[in-house]
Design brief:
heterotetramer; A: alpha/beta; 7-stranded antiparallel sheet; 16 strands; globular; B: alpha/beta; 8-stranded parallel beta barrel; 4-stranded antiparallel sheet; binds flavin-adenine dinucleotide; binds flavin mononucleotide; binds FE2/S2 (inorganic) cluster
Chain lengths: 266, 303, 303, 266
């Protein structure tokens, strides 16, 4: 875990509200694992005050990549950064996805909704390196919300897309697409990252199908490295339910640990 | 070479910068970023007698130049702290201060007593000012009488030096400070967070699971500075100032207003090495201004 | 079409947006920017019996997302106001509210009495909460008793509806609100500014000529919102909320927390047409959310 | 007085910390007079909160020009604006310089120190249009602080420069240079804009020489249009000393009106 205040932005790709940044950050890149994240300083003033958590979309050699969607002021400011500028990063943070030896030669479902697709590219690469066969599910509201589709496909992944409005791929929620595929094949494991309703629906499916899974959760973060106790979610571990830190004990939790709360405020 | 040390009477610090309670974990979280011995000291997260679950999430909301939190003092309790964490901290050559909490007045005394039996603690900070654990954000530091009683009880059961931490949610901060002084506190620290709120328009519900929370960060600095100024003029014991300190310049304002030392809170989240940067900034500023001892800055404001 | 009107009982407003006292001059300053009749109303700058020089400059300091002012109620006095300004305002089809000040309790009553003899004033706002005119920032609104006495005195000498403006620099804002209500105020407005300070490191002097000042702007919004929430649950009279409102979304938060109307202060400096933008934003938001009467939003927060 | 939220930045020139912006703002340009100023929004967030007062350096046709020095966060953010971006301006504000018919064919001293030179270009043009002969004094700490020298000279003005360190022009304060020139010639009037010590020294000189003058004052401004009473200075007018608004009653005051206070805080 290091602070890199000199991570040079070497490439920017964008599609509407979505941005893919390539950054030079050798030290963070050398330590990174799929499912981990960065805390990124978005402003030089006190507004917005806090860093923003963004997943590692990829790490290779000296380079990091992040993929994000403009959600508010912080990500808007981030999106304005230009090639050649330096970013102030803290990372890699959190515990990543666990890729197990027994996945070898098995199909693994990786389900991403919207910006939740971000960490799955890196995860897919790692799965492939471990000899597994990742199947990437990519859901969006509409065709324009699937900017990474081409990138994932050209990387050689099997990619199944869905759109709520039917403008591309399977018409309907990505969770229904997963259900459909489960009728046809039986993966060894499922990874998921996306908005709460998608995650809750997927959790149901996995439980019903007795499909082991890991979910990457989001939470508003104060620090990202365990100092503030601000990011907690209720987790069942060692026979107890307690508030664990998403930033340190997560953001990836195994499905059976997650205690789905009545909808939180805010 | 600037002499950065400050002497609080009951405690000598190698520099006037302490990390504030609740923003520095149990200290160990910051080891990856720098050597903790470079700090004047740090205050660990508030401890009750028993482990505490803390408040329902969401627990954080960002506001303009500020942060509202309603952590609710989640923590491992004083026993586990002394067993698991303190041994790792006790050897450090820096002041380890423990933030003491209580549901009611007696619990403060019991936590303090328990801690008093352990080595490696430089002082206790009495957290009678957390707005996140009682109904409507109330706390003992909102009443001079309750403050006096609590300080007195704690003083009776421990010989560890006591820093009493005040709440800004009061009409007259000096009255509370004087009550704490009268009851025998060795120092006063302020401010804790300002009771605050935010609403989510879409759900029409409070953004915090606990409805109310405490506001910290640069937004509150001007209020904190005013209160430190008022208290430093009213009491004789040393004052430790905090509230929105993000830079050496901020720290210097508090010192000029009368603070003998400062605490850095929310800044630790934004820059994990914030305390270190502030210590270096103090040194640079003092050099540039020909100041030999940083403690000369304390109370040097001219009216 | 959304019905933006709100009925305070003693006063009907065409929309819930008022410009706050001290940030809107005597109203005329904003004529170049828009038609004042588009406003729910506006509160003119605080008036004493006599003209006042105001405080020594500098009078303003910017702080993170905030502004400290120590104007000290410079103004032309109530006589000149009634003679020179009021005739220009009296014909406007919008609520003209006058902010009433006093050195001591009797002066409030005399200013109110004087104003009561003139036409064109929709209500008086009793400014018992300015931190810039008394030693150490003190004001009557810091005491339920002083608040009760002052409101009572003013009620005795005028039949104009009275809005009592509270100070955030208190331990228990509801106690003061209840005192004002008991003494017969028709409404409560809050918050005035938070007592604050800033220091210039180079000169080692306070940045404000008056040493202390009042903090306003987005920085204080979370504190203001909390207080409006607390007061709206405690009193029966309508509550007018303010403190850092810069957008329609901010205004809506205050309304959900219980405010029947809002005031916009510091935002008028940044965008002279801030009130207008907020009114339009309320309309757009209501349309989008299928709300027919904006007054339904008041108190709609779910806990 | 109007709000122009669409003032396009058409040209940027810069010299170190100093910036000259050319803006498209037809409505403000058509109302502007020398000595007036703008309130400029520098940030889209709440930090810094307030607009920043900047003098009109020039107005011609649809175009405005401003000249400013980075002094802190606000002017730094302003300096980052790029050609093609839109600025949010409020103006023209305040009362400008008074150019009188009797100046015709007389020499008029215009004294600017540092960024205080900003309004004197526009004033010089107006003086020339009125048939007067402006003499522009331009003082800076060092040669690098006189970026407008060439621009003023090529506009055909008589320009006398001074530097504190002697690196260009008269070695010493611009106030001493004015004293020197006063030994040689007698102008009809003096205008000044610059830092407080310069202004106080010049005031002394003018009083001693019985030279009528107008000074443009600075003050921290909340609104810029008379609504906040934040910008006041003590002014002697109608036989009384009172706090007048720099933004509305100024920023230009006639010398004999200004009450020089013991040094203000801050
Ligand atoms: C571990 C982790 C990894 C993430 N990775 C990515 C990523 O790779 N790509 C990406 O586009 N986004 C990612 N996010 C979400 C991203 O952090 C938020 O979108 C961002 O912080 C919003 O900031 P803002 O200032 O733009 O919006 P704000 O104005 O702060 O908020 C806009 C909306 O987002 C919500 N929000 C704010 N902070 C968070 C947060 N930390 N998590 C979830 N919701 C939040 C707010 O409540 C609000 O509804 C991740 C979040 C976490 C916790
Ligand atoms: C009528 C008027 C016209 C001006 N015209 C120009 C101009 O044409 N070109 C130019 O470069 N500057 C001009 N200024 C000064 C300019 O407004 C300030 O430099 C700027 O506001 C500083 O903002 P900042 O955020 O960069 O610095 P800050 O961090 O806010 O302040 C930096 C320093 O400048 C001081 N300061 C802040 N605001 C002002 C202010 N309004 N006036 C004077 N000092 C201030 C602060 O006390 C501090 O010492 C003018 C000021 C006024 C009042
Ligand atoms: C997330 C968070 C947790 C906190 N927990 C504690 C605590 O356990 N005990 C305590 O005395 N103060 C606690 N505080 C208050 C801080 O120590 C400090 O008084 C306050 O935040 C103001 O300083 P700052 O603006 O520098 O953060 C907490 C503050 C934050 C933001
Ligand atoms: C420059 C300035 C002058 C003010 N003058 C008055 C006043 O005369 N009377 C009064 O009741 N409040 C006065 N206030 C307080 C405002 O009316 C308002 O209560 C406060 O600023 C909080 O709202 P805001 O954050 O929207 O500005 C003044 C505020 C400012 C910033
Ligand atoms: S974000 Fe601070 S503990 Fe997790
Ligand atoms: S800046 Fe507001 S009155 Fe002059």
């Amino acid at each position: 875990m290091v602070i890199d205040r000199q991570a040079r932005l070497v490439e920017v790709e964008s599609w509407g509200d979505y941005f893919l940044f390539t950054l030079d950050s050798p030290e963070i890149a050398s330590q990174a694992r799929p499912g981990q994240f960065l805390m990124i300083r978005v402003s030089e003033t006190t507004q917005p005050l806090l860093r923003r958590p963004i997943s590692l979309h990829n790490a290779e050699g000296n380079r990091l990549q992040i993929f994000f969607q403009v959600a508010g002021e912080g990500t808007r400011l981030l999106s304005l950064k230009k090639t050649g500028q330096f970013l102030d990063l803290l990372g890699p943070l959190g515990k990543g996805f666990n890729v197990r030896p027994e996945f070898r030669e098995r199909e693994i479902f990786c389900v991403g909704g919207g910006r939740g697709i971000a960490p799955l590219y890196y995860l897919g690469r790692e799965l492939r390196a471990a000899g597994a066969q990742p199947v990437i599910f990519y859901g969006g509201r509409s065709e324009g919300d699937l900017p990474l589709r081409y990138r994932l496909e050209t990387a050689g992944f099997e990619v199944l897309v869905s759109t709520d409005d039917g403008s591309a791929g399977f018409p309907g929620f990505v969770t229904s697409l997963v259900e459909e595929e489960l009728k046809k094949r039986r993966p060894a494991f499922l990874y998921a990252c996306g908005p709460d309703p998608m995650m809750e629906k997927l959790a149901e499916t996995c439980r019903r199908e007795k499909l082991p899974a890991e979910f990457s959760l989001e939470s508003i973060m104060g620090c990202g490295f365990g100092a503030c106790w601000g990011c907690v979610k209720k987790i069942r571990r060692d026979g107890q339910e307690k508030y664990l830190k998403v930033c340190q004990d997560g953001p990836v939790f195994s499905l059976e640990e997650i205690v789905w709360q009545e909808r939180e405020h805010g | 070479m600037v002499d950065l040390s400050v002497d609080l009477g009951f405690l000598k610090l190698k520099n006037p910068v302490l990390a504030a309670s609740g923003t520095f974990g149990y200290g160990l979280e910051f080891k990856p970023f720098y050597d903790l011995e470079l700090l004047g000291g740090f205050v660990v997260k508030g401890l009750y007698l028993k482990p505490r679950e803390g408040n329902r999430p969401p627990r954080l909301v960002e506001t303009p130049s500020g942060l509202i939190n309603s952590i609710g003092l989640q923590g491992i309790g004083v026993e586990a702290f002394c067993r698991e964490i303190l041994p790792e901290l006790a050897g450090l050559k820096t002041a380890v201060i423990v933030n003491v909490c209580g549901e009611e007045e007696d619990e403060y005394a019991r936590v303090a007593e328990y801690l008093g039996r352990h080595r490696g603690i430089a002082a206790l900070e009495l957290n009678i000012s957390c707005p996140n654990v009682r109904e409507g954000g109330r706390c003992p530091a909102q009443s001079p009488e309750a403050t006096h009683r609590t300080v007195k009880k704690v003083k009776q059961v421990t010989s560890l030096p006591l820093i009493t931490k005040l709440s800004p949610n009061v009409t007259d901060i000096t009255a509370v400070a004087l009550a704490a002084e009268e009851a025998g506190t060795e120092a006063i620290s302020l401010i804790n967070t300002l009771l605050a709120m935010a609403i989510d328009l879409e759900t029409r519900r409070p953004k915090l699971g606990n409805v109310l929370g405490g506001l910290s960060g640069p937004a509150i600095k001007p209020i904190a500075l005013r209160m430190v100024f008022q208290v430093a003029r009213a009491v004789k014991v040393p004052v430790i100032g905090m509230g929105g300190i993000f830079s050496a310049e901020d720290a210097l304002e508090f010192m000029m207003a009368g603070a003998a030392a400062v605490q850095v809170g929310t800044a630790n989240f934004v820059d994990p090495d914030a305390c270190l940067k502030i210590i270096r900034g103090l040194e640079t500023w003092a050099e540039k201004h020909g100041i030999k001892k940083i403690s000369e800055v304390t109370g040097s404001l001219q009216l």
